[in-house]
Amino acid sequence: MNKTRESDKSRIRKYAVVVLVCVLIFIAALVILNLWEKRQGTFVGENTAGTTANITVDGEKYVLNKNIQTFLIMGLDKFESDIDDTSYDNDQQADMLLLLVLDDEQKTCNIIQINRDTMVKVGVLGVAGQRINTVTEQIALAHTYGNGREQSCLNTSEAVSGLLDGIKVDHYMSVTMDAVPVLNDLVGGIEVTVLDDFGDYDPTLIKGETVTLKGEQALHYVRGRIGVGDNSNLSRMARQREYMDAFFSKARQLLDGDDSFSADVMTSLAGYMISDCTVSKLQELSKKAGEYELGEIYAMEGEAVVGEEFMEFYPDEAALNSLIAKLFYVKEEE
């Protein structure tokens, strides 16, 4: 069991590193292609959650750590061409959620992996992007409210903040699924041993066979859930870890040995990402994440159950409170 957990942590660490590499590449692409202005919307929002300055956990008193910055990374189950930024109701879900927790004093970067099925209070947005109601549903659905861009990212950030008892999400970045086949083919394809039976979803992917994924086939492998294996998000997450493990190794080889590879990636990825950060802020956060010691990868403890329509994940309240205290607070000095 311990070996399995350590293996999973290692894979998630590599996954996070690849995401951070993509952030750095995206920054350069923004500078080169001058796309930042095109990405900015007119909507201005703010995190409405309130962080408690002092808390008590297991009899111990804690005060808020003011040296913490948070950066939310969202992987969106949608394609850039399908996004209608004039609509305030979309079906673009955030299937991957990673919260980077940067401690500027300790020089550490911890990561919280959030299950997309986590049940939380989600804001319902009106036609002007303002919150008009809240509903309890999967956190992945928070991104379906708003225009699929800045408003939706902010709404997801607020849902994450609510999950973490008001801890503010300082900045965010989202990436659409279109980027998967682009990245996959840039490295010449990724070899995997197929973990699930894909059936009619993609007959070329046969469980147990070793294949080199190409183009849309790579997207099918990391995105497919309904009609694949046991239809669960946990199985999909296992495939994503396998894929990212192989991708990381291959991308690092190419980055080390081919100067033109970085330029190719820069040009190809620029159109798939959205962030609330200025270019200089992204540079600052990426530099910190790269230089700081990578700490733990935390997956929330809890229970996954079959709901009326979909899977529902309920975090263990005591374990979540302890995690919040550990990452965002420091013990009060007597």
Poorly predicted runs are 27-49
How is the largest sheet built, in terms of strand order?
A: 11-8-3-4-5-12
Number of helices: 9
- Please tell me what the overall shape is: globular
Number of strands: 15
CATH architecture: 2-Layer Sandwich
**What is the H/E order?**
HHEEEEEEEHEHEEHHHEHEEEHE
Percent helix: 25-40%
**Average pLDDT number:** 80
At the third CATH level, what is the topology name? Nucleotidyltransferase, domain 5
What is the total domain count?
A: 1
Measured by DSSP, the beta-strand proportion falls in 25-35%
What this model shows, in words?
The protein has 334 residues and is of the alpha+beta class. It has one domain (2-186, 259-327): Nucleotidyltransferase, domain 5 (2-Layer Sandwich). The chain has nine helices and 15 strands. It has helices spanning 2-33, 36-39, 150-163, 179-186, 216-223, 233-257, 259-269, 279-291, 317-328; strands at 54-57, 60-64, 68-77, 93-103, 108-114, 119-125, 131-138, 171-176, 190-193, 210-213, 273-275, 293-299, 302-306, 311-315, 329-331. The strands form five sheets. Strands 11-8-3-4-5-12 form a six-stranded mixed sheet, with helices on both faces. A three-stranded antiparallel sheet has the order 1-2-15, with helices on one face. Strand 6 and strand 7 form a beta hairpin. Helix 1 (2-33) runs antiparallel to helix 8 (279-291) and helix 4 (179-186) packs antiparallel against helix 7. The chain is globular, with a radius of gyration of 20 Å.
Outline the fold blueprint.
Blueprint: H1 2-33, H2 36-39, E1 54-57, E2 60-64, E3 68-77, E4 93-103, E5 108-114, E6 119-125, E7 131-138, H3 150-163, E8 171-176, H4 179-186, E9 190-193, E10 210-213, H5 216-223, H6 233-257, H7 259-269, E11 273-275, H8 279-291, E12 293-299, E13 302-306, E14 311-315, H9 317-328, E15 329-331
Parallel strand pairs: 3-8, 5-12
Antiparallel strand pairs: 1-2, 2-15, 3-4, 4-5, 6-7, 8-11, 9-10, 13-14
Helix pairs in contact: 1-6, 1-7, 1-8, 4-7
